[in-house]
Amino acid sequence: MQLDMSSASLPVYEALSSEVRLHIIRLISEKPMSVKELAQELGLSSAIVTKHLDKLAAAELVTSKRVGRSKMTELRVDTIEVKFPREIYPTFQVHQTSIPVGHYTEYRVQPSCGLAGKNGYIGKVDNPRYFMSPERMNAGMIWFNNGYVEYQTPNFLQGHEHLEMLDLTAELGSEFPFSNNTWPSDITFFINGKEIGTWRSLGDFSDIRGKYTPKWVPDNVNQYGVLKTLRVTDHGTYLDGQPFTDICLQDLPTDHETWTVRFEVKEEAEKAGGCTIFGQGFGNHDQNIELLAYYS
């Protein structure tokens, strides 16, 4: 689950602001429990426990199902990520390119794979030949088991402009037929043909629906990913603000008229669990793949 600083995230923050509800989460993280079992464990009445469970359910943190005569409650999520608003080096100027996820110029993919637009699937699912369909330009989500997709973008830097850092932002997840919330995958980033580093996605998420995922998408398939920001600077590369690799701007060829961005799941990856890329109109972030070149 991903949260931000908007009012839409308040139900989750409020649900977590209680010692009792935190205790409930710890208990049901070990096994599903009934209201009666929780009441006995917590030393509270069933009516009070029910109110706490309603609060957690309203925040989409827990779910309940009938098992015999008992109503059992279990967790819906195991990770919550909070994105804080931030201002990035406002003294720098920036050339920003927004790349739709279907605008790749080169690919090699293997099933399970496919493309989806706002009104339905594009071509046939699990058939790589449809990755070359002209309709791919309308895709808002693409996925593949292993292989890569590569994008080209113009280099807008002028001769008098000095590149200070490069940001690549995309919403990514693993790929599993339908979905699997615990399905790690090693996704490798390349910029201008240079391997930058590998990030391990934890799953192919469908525990809750994506904020922007179209209604036609079934509940049991990819719903959203994790927004990742890769930053290449003069002194190394950072992922979401944390040190990532030693690759520096000087290691990248940046004088070409076009730059390339590639997302790849290598066949020899330790966790080759596929890749899903979410673009505008899908997932939890209504954006395309963003490449920002900060310059002075």
Automatic annotation (TrEMBL):
GO molecular-function terms, A-Z: DNA binding; DNA-binding transcription factor activity
Keyword annotations from UniProtKB, A to Z: DNA-binding, Transcription, Transcription regulation
Occurrences of domain HTH arsR-type (ranges): 1-95
Lineage top rank: taxon: Bacteria
Ranges in a coiled coil: none
PROSITE patterns: HTH_ARSR_2
CDD domains associated with the record: HTH_ARSR (cd00090)
One Pfam family of this chain: HTH_20
Full protein name: Transcriptional regulator, ArsR family
Organism, scientific name: Levilactobacillus brevis (strain ATCC 367 / BCRC 12310 / CIP 105137 / JCM 1170 / LMG 11437 / NCIMB 947 / NCTC 947) (Lactobacillus brevis)
